[in-house]
């Protein structure tokens, strides 16, 4: 058994809808055994006998002055775009043409794909992200490279081969049948192998033919425990393009719905330009939205409608969307999410932002009880947050008067430096020092 002493925070519900949504132990203890959570609670409330056993058998790792919480869950990002992050463009579609597609071409080389995957995962762990839903490229080699890098470190990761059989450069184009065949082979190879999970991954509706979308929907129905991820309603030019390509569909989201792609374990990136009917349909099918505020601001795509999504009951999570997003840090992503919400006349408390980045992501992925909080038996993926990580953050943290203020300071002033340590399945996988 392993024991960690610090302030402990985790969630059992969405703070926007429940008054007792979180568990905060200012002097807390987290107990781990065999990579799983045994218990989490107040240090002083653990039995004298248990403390005696712990002191007799192992040393308690002392992180007092810091906060232990579940690892961050990033539900939408692209590992092949690591090397083109912060590339200038006037909008989404020109950005794809000039930077994204040429960069992804290089991922037919296993050595290149493996090197980028390793660096990408290093960055995730340095920023406290222990689970992510990741896009690869159209080349199956890129999927093998990512899963191999993740498996080596025993991480809970989700990814899949991008499907793209039209409206893209020939060097990245697959076929409707060939893309699905490759996807199914990769799914059978990697899905539920250790902690790896597979996602059927059409890039977005404009780059898949009707035939490919039909086959992708059929594959998703054949493997209901697999994931499905794609983009939806990110940008007004993109929405107009979808309308011209699918004139018989009521909306962008309706395109996916017609092919049976709205379902539990489906994750839709962005979801900026949806209407109320789209949101109701997502809620009915438990299709989740990955909110990507940093990317949406960078590309000028629009502001996510938190109020509309909450009214409909859409499952929500936060995502960096690297490399449209300009940071791997979920703390910096919270910073932008708060501002996006304010611009859309919604107030986003810090407690809810941390929920969205942990249990909210797990619930959106249908993984509550596996990751995202500290219930007994959950996988022991957790991070150690340091409120003293920078001089400014330390100064502000010393003057906070409640948990909400402390978390708000971390969200608005924090970055990768605030992650003192990252653990996956109970093992240290990153230490700032």
From TrEMBL:
Protein name in UniProt: Guanine deaminase
Write down the chemical reaction(s) this protein catalyses. Answer: guanine + H2O + H(+) = xanthine + NH4(+)
User: Its annotated pathway?
Assistant: Purine metabolism; guanine degradation; xanthine from guanine: step 1/1
The prosthetic group or cofactor this protein requires is: Zn(2+)
Which segments constitute the Amidohydrolase-related domain? 67-429
InterPro entries in the cross-refs: Amidohydro-rel, Guanine_deaminase, Metal-dep_hydrolase_composite, Metal_Hydrolase, Metallo-dep_hydrolases
What is known about what this protein does? Catalyzes the hydrolytic deamination of guanine, producing xanthine and ammonia.
NCBIfam families recorded for this chain?
A: guan_deamin, PRK09228.1
Q: Which UniProt keywords apply?
A: Hydrolase, Metal-binding, Zinc
What does the UniProt cofactor note say?
Binds 1 zinc ion per subunit.
Which EC number(s) does the record attach to this protein?
Answer: 3.5.4.3
Q: Does the keyword Transcription apply?
A: no
Protein family per UniProt: Belongs to the metallo-dependent hydrolases superfamily. ATZ/TRZ family.
Q: What would be the name of the gene that encodes this protein?
A: guaD
The UniProt transmembrane annotation reads none
Q: Which residues form the signal peptide?
A: none
